[in-house]
Amino acid sequence: MLKIAIIAGGDSSEHEVSLRSAQGIWSFMDHTKYDTSIIVIKGADWKMVSYDGQNYDFSHTWPVDKNGFTVDKDGARLSFDFAYIIVHGTPGENGRLQGYFDMIGMKYSCCGVMSAALTCSKYHCNRYLSGFGIPCAKSVLLTRNDTIDADRIVGELGLPVFVKPNTGGSSFATTKVKRTEDLRGAIELAFGEQPEVIVESFMEGTEITCGCYRQKDGMLLALPITEVVPADEFFDYDAKYNGKVQEITPARIPAELTAQVQATTRDIYGYIAAKGIIRVDYIIIGGVPFLLEVNTTPGMTATSFIPQEVQAAGLNISDVMDDVVLSNL
User: How many CA atoms does the CB half-sphere of 186 hold within 13 Å?
Assistant: First the structure.
């Protein structure tokens, strides 16, 4: 029986979201095939946490020996065959954790160091993919050392704009700015989350998302598309995790456009050298899908987009987990 470590937590504001995704992954695994444990990491504190299938018990933990990624549990030395990385944000989505596993020779579920570092940066990933002819929003990248010229930014991008951490997720510190005088405050809010901030031109249209993964036979499968209809002005944290959104799978778009988006998603999978499951977000304007961002470690709670799309495809989520593990061993 393969021993799988589900790696969750991390050092960003998405720590708690990651713990919920780990519960999803644990529930999706076929426990007749896999001996599955959950490892929670935060900074230098890496530990295996007792989990009963419903709740974490943080009063019962065992430290991870990072020299070989083993756990001494009650006098028995535990090792693992495979790591399922479900850390949203750093160090799971920017390549750092992947680099560690590469160095110790551990197989894992998602893309490697270079691909993770690229896709973690919304700005650089979109600029890279635009070179393949994929339409993206106009954007400006800011660092802490830059002088913030709100008039110049608005002159270049127009209003409204979205301001967000360049390497963040789950819409933390993301603001839709409608007035030039509000731009600086939104940028400072985003800087409180990450050292780089992206300001993007607003695009009004139909928001959709499409999952994609490589099956164990080597074929890429783009899943049915989900249409995202937030109750508020954009797909913010409340919409993502507190139900303030309507999610329609399959999306109410023409069949030809569905096929185009799925083909583009498969192309992006190859362009970024992805592995495991990815999710690509778009907004459709005038029949054209514009790229919003690429998620190489998408949320995997029971109500997340990927499980919805798997169900709509008539697939068994446990079989999808098998494909992810077996295609990356």
Answer: 21
DSSP 3-state of 311: helix
Closest CA to 211 of 249, 175, 166, 164: 249
Strands across the sheet with 161-165, in order? 139-143, 196-201, 161-165, 175-177
Cα separation, 307 vs 20, in Å, equals: 14
* Region for 148 from its dihedrals, namely left if φ exceeds 0, alpha if ψ lies in -120 to 50, beta otherwise: beta
Q: Could you give the CA distance from residue 74 to residue 162 in angstroms, rounded to a whole number?
A: 50
Check: CB of residue 282 under 8 Å from CB of residue 210.
yes
**DSSP single-letter state for residue 102:** H
Confidence of residue 232 (pLDDT cuts 50, 70, 90): low
Question: Could you give the CA distance from residue 196 to residue 61 in angstroms, rounded to a whole number?
Answer: 35
Q: How far apart are CA 288 and CA 151, in angstroms?
A: 29
CB atoms within 10 A of CB 215: 16
Give the pLDDT score at 244. 63
| 309 in Cβ contact with 327 (< 8 Å) | no
Residue 11 scores a pLDDT above 90: yes
Single out the residue of 212, 153, 211 nearest to residue 180, CA to CA.
Answer: 153
